[in-house]
């Protein structure tokens, strides 16, 4: 697993964003660790290439023992999460723990009312309830672009702030 912190590849926040652009925004946030699962690791092959974004200002949390506040996934998880059809070339999904209030603000309904069957999770550049974790207040966007990139950057900052508050409460 590749663990990086403090490196930034920053765009304008309002155009088409690739995986490295999203990870660059995350790396620029204070106290954030980005871990990317490497091919050949002990993780399931479906997770190879996926990135987990967590708040760990001390940099001493054991890998796998933290809860990410955002993830960037690049492939389907057969039998678990295939709704976004991430098997298509160049397609990835950013998942963010938005919480109930921001979830409702973005989607127009609370997490408890999210119905995966009512959503086209393959749609790009639109805010969607997470296909598995919507009830926990997670939102996602497939291939962020002009309609979502600016808000995505802000949402990552807000999720980091919430994660930092939880960290301080421990």
From TrEMBL:
Pfam families: DUF6194. Residues 22-170 form the DUF6194 domain. InterPro entries: DUF6194. This is DUF6194 domain-containing protein. It comes from the Bacteria.
